């Protein structure tokens, strides 16, 4: 049976991290979003004002995206509670974060311990606590969102982390938010969650990132390349290496999550979000080598069908074209500029 405790972390919150977390050389990486349906808005900047202090629940928050998101929200003056199983520390000091900043964050972050798949516990504990806004960072199935909605009938906003992996494969790229989705994709649970939020009539916002990179990433995305480069090993890349993909920095994604909070133009909308540039698999290997000061890498192309890798991933990206449109033409400026583009 899950147990619940809403307590302040014992570890000694955070001033916003400097932009130096991304050490790639080049122009700034821009994270933008595009509206799903409303395409007739007048031109002009989208003015995002700081919302009033909210009582916010983050489902997850101790692995990657939520670590940065929680800091930004606390910095904005919100009361932030993380709902986790308690298997990881609620607060951990980030690269480049001062001792004072970490102590401030740790003194303010709250914790609700439990298993989100224990639906009855979720309903009872959330109803007892009451929250204005939910950030669902680790939700994978619609059934996981239902008890949250049941427990919080007066919820002001449900902000969901979806995935660009929901789109149906197509020969016509990039993907727009209005493009066909794949009900059989490995992310079908996220599609079903978006549909549930729409059906329940709540004020919801969904962000669909592509690949995410940055500090503390538990998926071996950019890290995979750097490990091989440091070891002096060649970079094995499936097939031609000309497959085009797209990446965005975790800090930019977290910033976008903050900007949709309380924003009426984000109400019941889906947003693509990623870096503004596309990159080939070969290009990414070369960019990582350049960023880390290594010579041009040795790239070996291989046919994945000729090998049995078992359950291991031979390459950190899916062997397919994967990129989305983040064009905001005619919709106003809704973007953050923090990090340098790793492939220009």
What does this structure look like?
- The chain has 344 residues and is an alpha/beta fold.
- It has a single domain, classed as Rossmann fold (3-Layer(aba) Sandwich), CATH 3.40.50.720.
- 25% of the residues lie in helices and 19% in strands.
- It contains 8 helices and 16 strands.
- The strands form 5 sheets. The protein has an 8-stranded mixed beta sheet with strand order 1-5-4-3-6-7-8-13, sandwiched between helices. Strands 2-16 form a two-stranded antiparallel ribbon.
- Strand 4 (79-84), helix 2 and strand 5 form a beta-alpha-beta unit.
- Helix 1 packs across helix 7, helix 4 runs parallel beside helix 5 (188-200) and helix 6 packs across helix 8 (281-292).
- The radius of gyration is 20 Å and the shape is globular.
- The protein starts with 5 loop residues before the first strand and ends with a strand.
- Residues 1-50 and 329-344 have low confidence and may be disordered.
- Residues 56-273 form the NAD-dependent epimerase/dehydratase domain.
- GO terms for molecular function: UDP-glucose 4-epimerase activity.
């Amino acid at each position: 049976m899950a147990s619940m405790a809403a307590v302040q972390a014992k570890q000694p919150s955070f001033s916003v991290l400097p932009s130096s977390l991304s050490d790639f050389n080049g122009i700034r990486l821009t994270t933008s979003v595009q509206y799903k349906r409303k395409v007739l808005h007048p031109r002009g900047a989208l003015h995002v004002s700081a919302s009033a202090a909210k009582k916010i629940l983050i489902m997850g928050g101790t692995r990657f995206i939520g670590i940065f998101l929680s800091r930004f929200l606390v910095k904005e003056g919100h009361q932030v509670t993380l709902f986790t199983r308690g298997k990881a520390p609620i607060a951990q000091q980030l690269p480049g974060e001062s001792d004072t900043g970490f102590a401030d964050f740790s003194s303010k972050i709250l914790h609700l311990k439990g298993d989100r798949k224990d639906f009855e516990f979720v309903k009872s504990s959330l109803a007892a606590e009451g929250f204005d806004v939910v950030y669902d960072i680790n939700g994978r199935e619609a059934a996981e969102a239902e008890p949250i909605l049941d427990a919080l009938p007066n919820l002001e906003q449900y902000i969901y982390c979806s995935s660009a992996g929901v789109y149906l494969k197509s020969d016509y790229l990039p993907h727009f938010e209005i493009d066909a989705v794949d009900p059989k994709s490995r992310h079908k649970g996220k599609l079903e969650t978006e549909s549930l939020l729409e059906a329940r009539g709540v004020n919801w916002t969904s962000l669909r990132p592509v690949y995410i990179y940055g500090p503390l990433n538990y998926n071996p995305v950019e890290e995979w390349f750097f490990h091989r480069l440091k070891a002096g090993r060649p970079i094995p890349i499936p097939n031609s290496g000309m497959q085009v993909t797209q990446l965005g920095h975790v800090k930019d994604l977290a910033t976008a999550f903050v900007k949709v909070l309380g924003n009426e133009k984000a109400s019941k909308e889906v947003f693509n979000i990623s870096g503004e540039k596309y990159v080939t698999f070969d290009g990414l290997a070369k960019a990582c080598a350049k960023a880390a000061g290594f010579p041009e890498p040795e790239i070996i192309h291989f046919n994945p069908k000729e090998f049995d890798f078992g359950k291991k991933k031979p390459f950190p990206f899916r062997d397919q074209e994967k990129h989305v449109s983040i064009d905001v033409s005619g919709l106003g400026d809704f973007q953050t500029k923090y990090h340098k583009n790793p492939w220009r």
